[in-house]
Amino acid sequence: MSENMHPNNARPVPFRGGGFRPVAKRGAAIIVFTTLILLAEWGTRTGWITNLTLPRPSDVATTLIDLWRSGLLWTHLSVSLSRLVVGGTIGITAGIGVGMMIGLFSYVRAGLIPVVAALFPIPKIALLPLFVIWFGIDEASKYALIALGTFTPTIVSTYGAVDNVDRTLVRMGQSFGLSWWSIVRKIVLPGALPGILSGLRVSVAIGIILLVAAEMLGAEYGIGAYILQAGSLYDLERLFAGVLILSVLGITTSWIIGLLEKRLLNWRG
After folding, report:
1. Helix-strand-coil percent breakdown of the chain, rounded to 5?
2. How far is 58 from 262, CA to CA, in rounded Å?
3. Does residue 264 sit within a domain?
4. Is the sign of the CA dihedral 172, 177, 179, 180 positive or negative?
5. pLDDT tens, residue by residue, 90-147
6. Residue 125 and residue 212: Cα distance in Å, rounded?
7. Residue 137 is part of which domain span?
8. What is the CATH number of the domain that holds 185?
């Protein structure tokens, strides 16, 4: 046996899987965003990108600062947040409840899955005129649109998460004599929670999209109304400022859901 092959010279091989746990890389996102902004600023200043295509990021920042100082930023944002919270809460709460019932009860599954399958692919924006006829042009129609838009994807993600719970754990709970409610509370709900929270990201993103669409019809205040006004005037600085606000709103909601995942799923280790 050669000297390099001797057992005493063997080097341990590090475990590279890490349990497939995501490792936080602080600063990576900031570097990417900063690089993109600097490239856009350089491109617009040198003429490589025309001002009719993309405004200068520095001009957009100035627009945001003026919007903040005038108080209109909070005026538009607070109205949009209230609509998103009310409509999203109604849709997501109802969606989780119906999704759990579909996942737990066979008769409910047989009766409601065809209904959900029929509603899910319908573009909810196309129903906005109908909601205006039903609920009026005020807040109720906007709440209804956001609620329906978040309702159907939450149902699908919830009953899918329940279906993916390890059935071996359920059988183990039955063998130990646990009641039906104890199995649901101690096994099914914790096992389905990761899938429900993952689906929540999609539902909230859909809610933001529908929020903008609803505010573009008969709304005086709101981020969607602000973007519509900027687009009608072809004011690219204001238009991109509104888009940036929506991006920050999406990042913030995703961050909040991430905090919920860390808090509720810390048992996974």
Report:
1. 80, 0, 20
2. 36
3. yes
4. positive
5. 999 999 999 999 999 989 999 999 999 998 888 888 888 888 888 888 888 899 999 9
6. 10
7. 59-268
8. 1.10.3720.10
Six-digit token string for 195: 């899938």
> 96 lies in a domain?
yes
The angle, 0 to 180 degrees and rounded to 10, between the axes of the packed helices 223-232 and 72-104 is 120
- Cα–Cα dist 241/62, whole Å: 9
Residue 26 lies in a domain: no
pTM: 0.81
Helix (H, G, I), strand (E, B) or coil at 49: coil
229 vs 190: CA distance, rounded Å:
46
The answer to whether 215 touches 245, Cβ cutoff 8 Å, is no
Q: Is the CB of residue 186 less than 8 Å from the CB of residue 178?
A: yes
Residue ranges for the chain with pLDDT beneath 50: 1-2
